[in-house]
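Friendly challenge for the regulars: who can give me the structure tokens for this chain first? No prize, just bragging rights.
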Amino acid sequence: MTVSLRRDAPRSRSGRLLQRIRKGGLPYLFLLPALLLELLVHFVPMIFGILISFKQLTLFFIRNWTGAPWAGLGNYRLVVDVHGAIGSALLHSFVVTCAFTVLAVGLSWLFGTVAAILTQDSFRGRGALRTIFLTPFALPVYASVIIWAFMFQYNNGLVNELLHNVLGITSRPSFWLIGHNSFFALVIISIWRNWPFAFLCVMAGLQGIPRDLYEASAIDGAGIWQQIRRITMPSLRAVNQVLVLVLFLWTFNDFTTPFVLFGASAPSPADVVSIHIYNASFINWNFGEGSAMSVLMLIFLLLVTAVYLLGTSRRRNNA
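First reply, four minutes later:
Bragging rights claimed.
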């Protein structure tokens, strides 16, 4: 009897271990199809894109891209040479994209935060107002940008009609889709599309702040600005860290908005990196240079993300 118990003990132990593995591995088994699709859709093209960046893949080798001559780091040297035509054009596009991203992300976050704070307290019609605020984020990107393109038209456009004929701010109608104003048109549309997302995130973060803090601070004599500075913004720090990073990645990589607004030939003041890479790859038919630009942009985004996460984590630990 004693021997049988000793023999059954390892079996029961192994059975419990197997059962524990089955229970713990079942969620990962369900996630496996999504993981495989993620690898197929994102990582496999990324690997091929990196490989293409080391080849002289042009129009003449599209049919047999594996037979394209090996360029090594030649494409990278060409696109980072700021004294050459290709490198200087890429640098200009990079500067435009950085300026566009800073303005669009900063103002989107500002408008979303202000709107969320103003609609935090309950009042009549708050639900309807919040729904109206979220409408731009719910609309399809293509449809909303097309509408803005009609509004920015030189003749009979709503923007010129309002600024010139109704308000009299401008002395004459302005060109919004060409010239220097094209940059501001792109920024305005990006803000209009992204600030409702910031509003939604900040509004959700405000729900987690206890109302007792505001009541206690009001009793102590704190005004609205002191409450926002001492209570609201510190409590929203974790939300804002993720929100700003997501908005930055979305805006810097945005291709749909400038492409629908300007087409493949974007004006020089609005020549963002995504359109510039598209032109290099699909207009000039130089996929090697376009892939090298894409890899450099990927490295830049990874570095910015790593530095941002490192800086925010250190600040959180010090706080």
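The chain has 13 helices and no strands. Confidence is low (pLDDT under 50) at residues 1-7. Your move, everyone else.
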